Recover the amino acids of this structure.
């Protein structure tokens, strides 16, 4: 009986405090923008084994190799209010055929703005692997040097999916952004 009660509270906690930003399945919102030489399309999952057995994911492809800052924005809907005393993390899954240099920003002041270049947060530690899904967890912060998120509301998450490997053709997939 105690195990059942504990399991019930764990399930309730997950639903009460977890927010899936986008799982890219049928009915999910499309990305809100791909700029700087990337395209973003919801496609069938290229590898439905391991940690990601979902049907769909977001495919990000490079169309131009000269912009390190190229990004894809994902809308947080509904917008997420975050207290400065909260410790939050962004979880997502990545699959790529080449090694990537990931970063993201969370300082966009609205759904329509992607924030500033100086506020790119990178996963630490992060070991890029190829041709396999991996889970990436990044703390929700204002800037790389801050200790919390003080913006009050998270409107969007902008992914810099390949900041340093401009000579490679990029074909990266994101799934289950939470």
């Amino acid at each position: 009986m105690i195990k059942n009660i504990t399991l019930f509270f764990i399930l309730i906690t997950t639903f009460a405090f977890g927010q899936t930003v986008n799982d890219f399945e049928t009915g999910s919102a499309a990305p809100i923008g791909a700029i700087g030489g990337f395209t973003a399309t919801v496609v069938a999952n290229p590898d439905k084994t391991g940690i990601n057995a979902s049907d769909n994911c977001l495919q990000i492809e490079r169309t131009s190799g000269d912009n390190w800052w190229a990004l894809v924005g994902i809308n947080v809907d509904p917008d997420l209010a975050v207290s400065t005393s909260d410790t939050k993390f962004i979880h997502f899954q990545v699959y790529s055929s080449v090694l990537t240099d990931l970063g993201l920003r969370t300082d966009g002041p609205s759904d329509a703005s992607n924030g500033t270049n100086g506020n790119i947060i990178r996963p630490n530690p992060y070991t890029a692997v190829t041709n396999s899904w991996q889970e990436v967890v990044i703390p929700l912060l204002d800037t790389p040097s801050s200790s919390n998120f003080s913006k009050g509301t998270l409107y969007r998450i902008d992914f810099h999916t390949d900041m340093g490997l401009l000579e490679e053709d990029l074909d990266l997939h994101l799934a289950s952004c939470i």
User: Anything to note?
Assistant: The longest helix spans residues 2-17. Residues 21-175 form a domain with the Jelly Rolls fold (CATH 2.60.120.430). Helices lie at 2-17.
